[in-house]
Batch of 3 targets.
Target 1
Amino acid sequence: MSSRTVLRLLHQLGYSLQANAKVTEGAQHPDRDAQFRYLNDLAAGFVDDDQPAISVDTKKKELIGDYANGGTEWSPAGEPERVQVHDFADRALGEFAKAIPYGIYDVANNEGWVSVGDVADTAEFAVESIRRWWNLMGRARFPHADRLLITADAGGSNGYRLRAWKVQLARLAAETGLRITVCHYPPGTSKWNRIEHRMFSFITMNWRGRPLTSLRTIIDLISATTTHSGLTVQAGYDPEWYPKGVKITNAELAAVPLSPHDFHGEWNYTITAQPDQA
């Protein structure tokens, strides 16, 4: 029997070539759905009260240089963009060969900010990105704000177990005078974070097929991202140095004015604004 006959018979039996489907999520926390409802209710309340509610996350790190980038782009026939055969980071650049985009998405106004660093994805870098959003965009959008809601993943540089994340947020609260409430998505549900499908996905679509040859190119492509629904994004380079492995002592953590919520206080908590003792 020929391969064409096998192909025809398979089609007649209802078969087709299909890729794997990522649908099996494994074990789920018993309060997963309740946490989603709690988070959504809080976000809706902040928006109704004209208080800022933001979704934050680190986008996938990107190699800087003439490397292949997924997708296609319009070019003259037979003249594709020439890029490196192998995607190996330039050893001369070391850790600076990668761009680290940390994003903040304003849920109510459909706009975002992305800080692009090249050192490390640390809690200090994450909170500094939120600080930049507030100073450049948030303060003008919410001139009467006294509260801020942050929705974030359960892990990474903004994970709920990370001491440095809470210490840095306490410093931000002291600087801005904002009461900062944080709600984390349950473990294993990061793909439901709003910033993923409302901002990051469109940034990826905007630079498809284009080599990310420099930090300037990355920032320009992020800033040029728009959608028919009105999404706008601003971006900037963060040149600061953020050391890895910073240890937070028990005393430093105890000094954070943190109040856990009654429902899953490890995921939901509020940091009040106190003067920065430092």
Note: The radius of gyration is 22 Å.
Target 2
Amino acid sequence: MTSYSFPNACKRWLIAASVLLAASAAGAGILEDDEARKAILDLRQKVESFRKDFDQKLLDAAKQHSDEISQLRRSLLELQNQLEASNAELAKLRGQDEQLRREFSDLQRQHLEISKSLDERLRKVEPIKVSIDGLEFVADTAEKKGFEAALAVFRKGDFAESQTAFNEFLTRYAQSGYVPAAIFWLGNAQFIGKDYKGALQSFRKLIVQAPTYQRMPEAQLAMANCQLELKDTKGARKTLEHILEQHPRSEAADAAKERLARLK
């Protein structure tokens, strides 16, 4: 890039002008007037030509300097625009990052809620290990709740309603591990409700389906009571004797001895 120093150019022009003027003055005393005037005119033309050339160079230098400044300003403006665009893009990216963080946080919360809900649902249907009256088996949550609900009605003293509940349970869960207990409590509810034939049928069913049931001595004693209520003394005696033979050390055996003694 070419540059033109104004102070240096001015110095050179002034020196040249001074030299020319001095030369003209010295020659004026030697040459004749016409020649002196001619020399002065030539000198003036040279000085004028030098001045014009100098002015043109100044204009060219100023124009070049102005163009360079304009180019620099355009470059600075373009750089500023790029910087502003970069800042805007950065702000946009930061906004997107914050949005993604919020969305990720929402997804995590939804995942936890879904997992919790799924665990709760699985617990409701997941089989659980149950132990009742010496029997251990696996039952689902609805099955367990159904039996416990029917037993709660019995313990509340609503024996008619408990019969309905136990019958519904046995119909719905015919293969359940709760079946022996459900039949046993159904027979007791029928006996208390004075449905002796129904109770006798339930206890006989229990003997057939679960002969090793832990409450079998109680069931047989209740069966004998049903037979006595139905005036089947012979059948009652036979049932009581079976209790003594099969469960001699049970509490039901002690009660069976007393009843047999009264029957003689």
Note: Residues 33-125 form the longest helix (93 residues).
Target 3
Amino acid sequence: MRKRKTYGQFCALARALDHVGDRWTLLIVRELLPGRRRFAELAVGLPGVAPNLLVDRLRSLQASGMVERSAHPPRSASVTYALTDLGRGLEEPVHALIRWGATWMHTGPDGDHVDPRWGAIALKAMLDDPSMTEPSGRLGVQIGEEHLVIEIGSHGRRVSLADPAAGIDARVQGDLPALLAVAAGTATMPASSVRVEGDAAFAAAAMTPTQGART
């Protein structure tokens, strides 16, 4: 593994960037936030990254104490990677960057790769809101083969990975760009490419962005 470059500054931001400022590093963190991933799964979620570069970034994250590797023989297909507690501390900074980056999402994919699996972290970043307790209920969200639940109650509004078989007030289904546009406040429900079943008013309320997520 190459020797790590540093900014050489006694500044917490500079030292954080010493560890996560390299290209692809925060996107690896994004892929690991939902849970453990095999190397091949990471490669699928990071189209365009060279395998040797992905290996290098994973080793750097391990050396920094942010990622742990499962105890399997090297090159085993069973090897998985997961964030440590230190690595999971990047969740809110990543969420903040997603909210900030929504400024450049209004044009749509424009040829960029789209992965429905990114919906969970994006909607969580934009919609989680501990202050929103009404209207209470549960909204099922389907993005391709991915299933999420947006629940509003005494705990606030929370987005989680789940496939609710029952107990929901409404369900929405659509592609990721359309649902992100709604969550970012650049489109409203009902949207032509978002299908709603059940209580449409609750679905619209559950997908309404918090003030900080609006662009």
Note: The chain has a mean pLDDT of 91.
